[in-house]
Amino acid sequence: MKSSVSMKGWAAVLLGFVLAGVCLAGETGKISGRVMDRRSGEALPQASVMIVGTELGAATDRNGYYAVLNMPIGEYSVETSMVGFQTMSVTGVRVQADQTARVDFRLEATAIAMPKVVVTAEKPMVSKEMVAARYTVRAEEMIHLPADRLSELVFFSAGVVKTESTFHVRGGRANEVDYLIDGVSVVDPLTGEFGIELSRGVADEVIFMPGGFSAEYGRAMSGVINLITVNPRQSFGAGYRMKSEEPMPLYYDFGYTDQGLQVHVPVARNFRTVFNVGLTTPDDWDPRLFTLPHKARQDYSLYGKGFYEVGGKLKIGLSGAASRTQFDRYKSAWKLRLDDYRSDLRAGNLGVGKITYMPNSRSYYRLTVSRFHTGKTGGIRKPGPIQFWQDFQFRDTSEYVDPGMDNNNPWGCPYEKYWSFYTYGTYDDFRRTRTRVWTGKLAANNQVTSTHQVSAGATGDLYSVTSERVRWPAWRPVVDTYAFTPNNLSLYVQDKIEYEGLFANLGLRYDRFAPNASYMDSIVRDSLGGLDTVRTPASSKSQVSPRLGVSFRITDWLFARANLGYYFQAPLFGVLYDNTVRPVRHRTVYGDSLRLVVGNPDLKPERTQSYELGLQGEVAKGLLLTANIWRKDVKDLIGSREVPALPQPYVTYINVDFAWLTGIEFIFDVRNDWLSTKFSYTYSRARGTSSYANEGYDRFLSQGDSSVPAKEYTLDFDQPHRAFVQIDMKMPEKVSGTGWLDAALNKTALHLLGYVGNGFPYTPPGGKGDLQTWNTRQGPMRSNVDVVITKGLKLGRLKLDLVAEVLNVLDIRDVLFVYPTGKPDDDGRRVEFSDFQRSGMLAMRYGDPGYNHRRDLNHDGYLTQFEEYYSTYLYHRASIDWVNNYGPPRRARLGIELGW
Length: 900
Hints:
The protein has 900 residues and is mainly beta. The chain is 5% helix and 48% strand.
């Protein structure tokens, strides 16, 4: 097998490291305000405003207004000076991506030189310019959030529903979320999975927008996650972090260990770099009630970044990132032959080059070129121990054996109706995919007036997608191999309006997607009597999407907001191209039952129309209340349906499904010097005609039905009620008055995170065939409480943080899945003793036909009716997957973070 990341890909990553990474962190904010005379209140034109420690600054206009665009996120000191006035500096000014930090100055006139006035910026609780819900997790918070991966940090936000394997934002499907690294998408357009996962130490901020995002963002209908990477420092620094379950007793240990190393290297005054390496190695990557075999995982990531300034106006740079994830899978049906079951390997790399020209503080122009590559392989790996530095090696499909079930099981059960475990053969599906995306983006941003910031951009994406899939290789091999080169063009323009009590984002986006393929129009017989297809070129699809968001003041402490947006998302390439290039007989039907879903390159993009209203206000000192109500109408969702045709029908994807999603969120945020508390409650409903694209095929067509009922029902991931609470308590300095105790408690913090919500809907006995019972029952309530304790120490320039983390501290048996009975350990089937009563001999002897020593429980050479019954009962009990139906028990981790 070839290496999971091509040599060219690794060369691009290493070149990015050598040349020092991205120039401007990908996402920036703005500092603006006014400079006025303290006594008269008049504007002061031509006052000098400088960002301390940088070469950025501005001069005020005739109205005393200034603006500094393209500010990397972080905390700054802003200083203003003018002849005849006292110099003033404001420290602790926090800049956030796509946001404005407002800093106003009132200078005191003076005839003689006076000492500089230094004040600390207040951190406002109300986000006045926020026209839609937006949540930010900063680096200093990540140390006490128990999330294994950066993308999991959004789980603590209102409007997010986490299922066993993925998450959903405000009722949308799992593939409706875009994941960005410094503004560059790293979602695999073939599968919808994240193509790169970076170490937690890379992040400076993780921004989550669950709706109402501006016209700059596309490829998403439900949410956007934007990872803003850490900026290089002006001085040398290094850090190491480690968190592990290994020191814990066996009951609390699932083999989890996470490590990271980061180094800041300032090569020159205008050339700074940062490098990061991360490694995560759990023994059980998806823990349930106890550790299960064949679930080991190894993740590593590399990242390099920096920027180089030329003359203060031109900035040029490159970035490099790479990650590799490989893991084994566990499935109950394969528990007797796990070495012959599936393993996965996902590898990706990203290179970004940027040129930014900033002629003045009020405008900048940026050209970005990126190359994103990701590949995934799924199949049976070669046996043997695995090391994190070695890629999985996969067995050739010629070694695959058709799987099956028989009485050669530990219980000797000979009754086919009870069989649940494979006893011979191997997993019979192999797939290798590769996706490469070249993206060019040209963007312009200009502060036209003090109230209007106009931005515009154009983005072109060139894709190269290849897939090789072999199914049933030992029986009747079906090979699906293809290569396509679709493309996408996007244009946007946006006006950010800022008045004293009114803020607005007005945007317009245009998307055009070209699949560059043809679709199956009909099936005909060729001259030899075989089956052939008539194909028609698929047309390009386009849409104009307006985005409008407004925030306005109601009172001095209360702001209201409204948001309307149209969103457009091209289909995943898998549903466009899978099974479209092989002969039709391999794609539609085997005998009377087995069918494959044929891709449809002529699919229309899925569309969402979103509405949101919100209130946010500081109802008391340090108490912030936020309320959001939203609705989404989702149209042209992709579903699988049978298409009547001669000489035979086939199953394909069609824009046939829809959903309507609605909800309300309440967030209470309390902040003071030593205690911060955030409580959120969400009530939402998700209804539609399918929960995922293949549902019609999986639940109906593959079972022999010829049609899919047009039925609106509660979607599989609907969770009406859910609440989160986060309590962060920092010990005040000298709280006890005793020296040694104060030293022990100083910089000690306790963090508690709790969650409670409904279980997910399920269908009672009767199945999907009974339209009136689809997902009409709700699973058991779910809950969890995590506790994290941190202790900070400082020894000279060395900063040390100790972390103790207890997950599921109450050891709650959280039910993740139930059978139609509503229970996690009862599938509704019964093994009755009466089924094994027979006439004639009451026992079979050794040597008799039907005798099996595995069923002879007392090994006396006689197989009684009771032993027949009880061995079958034990087999059935083993087939109930109760272990996977519960969440993990209490787990504990110890960690350390060193910084210098």
